[in-house]
Design brief:
The chain is α+β, with helices and mostly antiparallel strands and about 190 residues long. It contains 4 helices and 12 strands; from the N terminus they run βαββαβββαβββββαβ.
Length: about 190
């Protein structure tokens, strides 16, 4: 099986915020960022008529497969909403590197063991092995390679760094839910 191209992940700047997915979908549909729902894929939408104007793509010849092809397993660009969770959760991928302490910049080399293998807690804290400060894991610097949130809007089949949200798209998301937004990239 080929490696996943990647995804652009959008989530609230405050990982504890719980935006309403229906309001977001309505706003993104009205703006033309998303198109019709994709049959058989709950929470997934085709790209809309203004998709390419609300994301800034790098490169001079942007070519995305915006619809499923004849091969049912073929990758194509679409937008997917995750389910809203009760608490912030980490989205990460094979491209995710150790986060850095925001105080002293030490890398948390054992992040997988300390975060992924630890029992869930309501507000987990990570203690830096160098400076001794304890912060929630979402306060660590993930360098746009992972992040926390309760709801994620994912643009599928976008290589990391290939596309970033424009100011108008971030404003649209903020207006729809009353909270600022941020982005990062992950690959499965």
């Amino acid at each position: 099986m080929p490696n996943h191209t990647g995804r652009l992940v959008l989530t609230t700047a405050d990982p504890v915020a719980g935006p309403d997915a229906a309001l977001l979908a309505a706003a993104l549909s009205h703006s033309g960022f998303i198109g019709d729902p994709l049959p058989g894929r709950p929470g997934a939408f085709g790209v809309g008529r203004n998709f390419l104007s609300l994301l800034a793509f790098s490169g001079c010849a942007v070519a995305i497969a915006a619809a499923p092809g004849p091969d049912p397993g073929a990758a194509f660009c679409h937008v997917h909403f995750s389910a809203l969770t009760a608490a912030p959760r980490l989205r990460w991928g094979r491209n995710t590197r150790p986060p850095r302490c925001p105080g002293c910049r030490t890398r948390l080399l054992e992040w997988r063991r300390r975060i992924l293998e630890s029992p869930p807690r309501p507000l987990p804290g990570l203690t830096c092995t160098t400076c001794g400060e304890t912060r929630p894991p979402w306060r660590w610097d993930w360098k746009e390679q992972g992040g926390y949130g309760r709801l994620f809007v994912m643009v599928e089949e976008v290589f990391p760094g290939e596309a970033v949200p424009t100011g108008p798209l971030l404003d649209l998301l903020t207006d729809a839910c009353g909270s600022g937004w941020r982005h990062f990239f992950v690959q499965d």
